[in-house]
Amino acid sequence: MIRLPLIICLGLSIFHQAFSQNMQKKNYTYLALGDSYTIGESLPLQDNFPNQTVQLLKDAGFYVEQPTIVAKTGWTGEELQWGIGNRVQQKAQYDIVSLLIGVNNQYRGGDLEEYAKQFEELVQKAVQFAGNKATHVYVLSIPDWGATPYAEGKDRATIAKEIDGFNQVNKTLSEKWKVNYINITPGSRQVAVDQSLIAADGLHPSAKEYKRWAEKLATAIQQQFH
């Protein structure tokens, strides 16, 4: 009579371990939506943040397939919507979806109301691709290109203020739709004092900076999927 509870507890423990191992052996799929920041402009493909995120997850024992990247340099939110419509099957499903978009809306002088409409539609689409699981969607804030050498001679303070305004929009909508929000903007401004964070083109992040984004994203994903 004394041994029975011990046997039951041991059996439950073994079941839990087996279940956890099976979860980690699942092949996770990842869809990355965005613009040049998602592509990793000026860098080898493996150095962009989606691919670095996948590698970090693999190192942590998660089986993640190579990311499906739908992004293009210069895309605004509206152009990303077009890209999704042409490159992703309507009923496609992914375990992980990241979204980083809006810098080109700001750069072209787009207004916040227009961006808000585009971004909300993109978040809804991202949630749909994630099997209607909002917790599987990860929004990254817009980096501040005004801190880069490319912005020399431009009004950096105005650029920073506008970037903050666009990020307030995407953060508010991320909270509304209950998706994860990762703030990478403060770190992007460190390029002003650390040139190792910028690529050779003087505008886009270096592999080192993308790794910092990937570490934040991979940590958030592990917390959700562990």
> How many beta-strand segments?
7
Q: Unreliable runs, pLDDT <50, ≥5 residues?
A: 6-16
What portion of residues is helical? 40-55%
Q: Give me the Rg, rounded.
A: 20 Å
Mean pLDDT: 92
Counting helices, strands and paired strands, the structural category is alpha/beta
Strand content: 5-15%
Number of domains: 1
- Can you identify the CATH class? Alpha Beta
Q: In DSSP terms, counting alpha (H) and pi (I) runs of 4 or more, how many helices?
A: 9
| CATH architecture group name | 3-Layer(aba) Sandwich
Cross-sheet strand order for the largest sheet: 4-2-5-6-7
CATH H-level superfamily title: SGNH hydrolase
Shape call: globular
CATH topology: Rossmann fold
Largest sheet data: 5 strands, parallel
- Straight-line distance between termini: 36 Å
